[in-house]
Amino acid sequence: MTQSTPQGDLQSLPALLARNVQAFGTLPAYREKEFGIWQSWTWAEASEEIRAMALGLLVLGLERGEHVAIIGRNRPALYWSMVAINMCGAVPVPLYQDAVADEMAYVLDHCGARFVIAEDQEQVDKVLEVQEKLAGTGTVLHHIAYLDPRGMRKYDHARMNALADVQAEGRAAATRLGADLDARIAGLTYDHTCVMLYTSGTTGKPKGVVLSNRNIIETSKNSAEFDHLGRGEEVLAYLPMAWVGDFIFSIGQALWTGFTVNCPENEATMMTDLREIGPTYFFAPPRVFETQLTNVMIRMEDAGRLKKRMFDHYMAIARRVGPAILDGKPVSAMDRFRYWLGNILVYGPLKNTLGFSRVRVGYTAGEAIGPEIFDFYRSLGINLKQLYGQTEASVFITQQPDGQVRSDTVGVPSPGVEVKIAESGEVFYRSPGTFVEYFKNAESTASTKDAEGWVATGDAGFFEEGTGHLRIIDRAKDVGKMADGHLFAPKYIENKLKFYPNILEAVVFGAGRNTCTAFINIDLTAVGNWAERNNIAYASYQELSQHPQVLETIAGHVAEVNRSVADDPMLAGCQVHRFLILHKELDADDGELTRTRKVRRKIIEEKFKDLIDALYGGKGEIYTETEVTYEDGRKGAIKATLTIRDAVVQPVGQRMAAE
Amino acid sequence: MNQMNSEGYTTADGRKIGGVLMEMKNITLKFGGVNAITDISFDIREGEIRAIIGPNGAGKSSMLNVISGFYVPQEGEVWFKGYKRGPMKPYEVARLGIARTFQNIALFDGMSVLDNIMTGRLTHMQTGLLAQSIWWGKAEKEETENRAKVEKIIDFLEIQAIRKTPVGRLPYGLKKRVELARALAAEPQLLLLDEPMAGMNVEEKEDMSRFILDVNDEFGTTIALIEHDMGVVMDLSDRVVVMDYGKKIGDGTPDEVRKNQAVIDAYLGVAHD
C-alpha cells in the first residue's frame, strides 16, 4: 500500500483547527439556527470552545486511547466534542441518535465507552437504560455530559453534568491541565485513530470501523481537490453524525478546507434552513431528492392552469437541453435562449424554493437514484453527481468528474484510489482512506482486507468499456441464480420499482425459485395525495395499501418494470410474477432496514415467511399478524388480510425465439 | 406522603411546594335558579399542579372561569397572592399574572404562530400605538426583547417548524400547543388549562403531559387544570379537587382521591355515558 507523506505538522484534526485559527480565525466556522436566528462561531471562537471541552474532559479523567460515545443530532457543540476528544488523545464514537436502547447497548459494550456525550434528556434516558443492562459486563459508565439541560434538573448528577458545566470546569483548570493537553495534542500522529464508526451492516451485528488520522485527512484533501472545494463553501449538516459521510464532509473536509458548517434548527425545519443557507456543496441520499421532487410535482398538480402549462413547457425544454448545457456540450443558440428564458421563469425560482440556487457541487450516494429524478435536477442546472463509497474507504471509492455525469454509473476511481474487479465480479479497492481494522474483530478484518491492503466491497460491478466508469450491479452476495439458471439480481429490479413515486420500498424474492415475487411498500405522501384528489377516504396506511385502485396502479407499475426487464436478455428471468403490498412500512426500528435504510433481506425473509409462502402458494389473499416496535420501544401487533396480485409478465421464451 | 402545613409541602418526587397562591372561600355561583357551584373551598399553592375533575356538567369550567375572574360568584371570596379579589377586567387579570388556554381553541386563525404568541406579550409592552407603528428606538428594542422571549418558548415547545405558518392551517394538536405557548408568553404565575388533552391521540397526550410537567419544572409556574382523562390527571397532578353537581366531593392527592368512596361512586367507578 502506498504510504502517503504526512502534510507537515498537519497530522490530526486539532492541528488543522490550530492552522485554521491562525490563517483565518475570524471567518465563520459553524452556524446553528437557534431561537429563530442563525448563531455563528468563528474558527477562533470554536477553537476556544473546543479547548475548554477538552480540558473539561481531562478534569473528568479521560485517558488516552479511550472511546467516547456521542449521541445526538447535528449540532456544533457535538462536532466540537469530537475534536476535543481527539485533543485528549481519545477516540470519538458517534452513534445513530434514533438507535433503540438495545442497539446502543451492543455498541457501548463493544467499544467499552466510559464517557458519553448526549444531546438531550431522551438520549440520556436511553444511556441510563443501557447502563442498567450493562451492569456486571465490565463496561462501567463513568460520566455523561449532556448538551440540552431541559428536563434534567431532577436527575442524579453524581455521574452526569451539563456540557457547559464541563467546559466551565475545563476553563477553571486551564492553567493546571493546559500543559498536559498541549502534550497530548503534540503527540498525535497520522497513525492515531481519528474516529471509530459503526457500520449498520445489512447482516449481523454492527462492526466498529477504525479510521486513522491518515484515512480522514488524506481523503478529505484528495476529495476537496477533486471538486475544487474552497474556504467559501457552505454545507448543511443534517445527515446522521454516525455516518461516515457526515464525518468526512462536516469535520474532515470542513477542517481541511476551512468552509462553514451550518446546523439546522431541528429535523422538521431542515427544508426551511436549506433555503435560508443555500449551500454551495450539498450531499443527500436519493431519498431526499425523491421526496423533494414528489413535493414539487404534488404542488404543481394543485397549481393554476397557466402556471402548470408554463412549468410543463419549460421542463420539457430543460429535459431536452439542460444536461447538455451543464456538461458544456454544443447546444443551438435558439435552445440556449429558450433555456435562458426558462431559467428566469421557472428553473431559477424553483431552485430557489428548493434551496439549490447556489449548489456548485451536489452528490448523491448510498442507493441507486432513479434516472428521471437524477435528470430532473441536472436539467435544472444543478450539478448533481454520483459517488460510490463505504465506511471502510472513508467514503470515496469512485466519483463522477464534472462533465461526465450519468445516472447509471458511479464514476471513475477517486484520486489516490485503486480499483480492481475480481474474477467473481466483486469490486476491490485500496487507498489512503482504507480503514485500519474492525475494532476487536480480527477475523472480519482479515476476511475483508488482504495483506496488500485490497478491500472487498461486497458489491458486484464492472468497468464500462470506453469511458472507464464503474457500474455497480448489486450486492455480490445477493446476486444469485434462479432455479432455471437465470441470473437473479434483486436490487436491480427493486430499484426499477422504486423509481416510481408511488413505491417507497420493494423487496424482490426469487433465488433458487422458478419465478420472482415482490413485497411493495407504497409511498404514503404520493399515494395519499392521489387518494385525496380522487376522493378516496382511508383511515390508515394499511387500509390505503389494500385499496383496489392502489393495487391496480401498482400492478401497472410492476407490468411496466417487467416490460423493461424483459428487454435485457440477461435478466429477463427476474420479472415479477406475483406481488403484494405490505401492511406496514418497513422500518429500522423493527430491524427490517438498516439505519441508513437499506433492506435487510434475511430478516425480512424470516419475519414474513408466511407471506412469501402465500406468494408462491398461489393464494389470492392471506391473513397475517406482525409484531411492530413503537418509537418508545414498546411492542404491538398489526393484523391484516393482504391481497396477492398476479402481474402481467412478458413471455421470455417466445421473445427470444422471435429474435 | 404529603406533609401539609401552612408553609407548603414536599411532593413524592421531591419538589418543594410553597405557600398558598390562590384561595377559594365558600364559592357559590348561580345562573338564574341553577346553582352551578355550591359552597366550594380549596386552595392552590405556589409551584403545584392542581387538577379539577368531575363528570360532565359538574361545574369544572365554571370553577375555572371563577378562578380566572370571568365569572364573579354571588357568594364567597377569591384570594390571590394575599389580596381579596373583586370584579376585574380581563386585562387586569392578565396583569395580575394569570394566563389561560381554552377548551375550544381561541387563536387568531389568520395570523402566524409567531404573531399569535407575540400577542401573549402584550401586557409586557409599554410603548404606545404610534411608536410601535413607526417602529423606531424604544419600540424596536422592546419588540426585539419580547421576540427573544417568544423564541425561547417556541424552542421550549418544539414548534420551530411552524413558526411562520398561519394558525388556521395547523392540525388540532399543534393548535393546542400554540395556545399553551401564547399563555406561557405572558409569563404567568398561575396558568389555567381548560381540558388541554381533549380530542388528542395517545402520542399527542404524552407530548402535552411532558410539556405541562416541563413548564412546571423549568419556569416554576403554578398550574391549575381541568381534564377528563383520568390517567393523565392522576399522573400529572399533585393534588386533585373532585366536583359533582356543583359540589366538592373530594380533595387530596391522586392516591387519596382514588380511595375516596364518594369519588368512586360519583365518577371513577360508575360509568357516565
Provide a concise account of the structure shown.
The complex is a heterodimer of chains A (659) and B (273). Chain A has 659 residues and is of the alpha/beta class. In chain A, 41% of the residues lie in helices and 22% in strands.
Description:
The complex is a heterodimer of chains A (659) and B (273). By secondary structure, chain A is of the alpha/beta class. Chain A folds into three domains: 13-283, Rossmann fold, CATH 3.40.50.980; 286-357 and 364-475, Luciferase, domain 3 (Roll), CATH 2.30.38.10; 480-658, ANL, C-terminal domain (GMP Synthetase, Chain A, domain 3), CATH 3.30.300. Helices cover 41% and strands 22% of the residues of chain A. In chain A, strands 4-3-5-6-7 form a five-stranded parallel beta sheet, sandwiched between helices. A five-stranded mixed beta sheet of chain A has the order 12-13-14-15-16. In chain A, helix 8 (213-226) crosses helix 9 (244-257). Chain B has helices spanning 60-68, 90-96, 113-119, 129-134, 138-156, 172-185, 202-219, 230-236, 254-259, 261-268; strands spanning 9-10, 16-17, 20-31, 34-45, 49-53, 75-80, 83-84, 98-101, 190-194, 222-226, 239-244, 247-252. Chain B has 273 residues and is α/β, with parallel strands linked by helices. Chain B starts with 8 loop residues before the first strand and ends in a 5-residue tail after the last helix. Chain B is built from ten helices and twelve strands. The mean pLDDT of chain B is 86. The A-B interface holds A 34-37, 150-151, 153-154, 265-266, 268-269, 272 and B 13-14, 147-148, 151-152, 154-156, 158, 160-161, 163, 210, 214, 217-218.
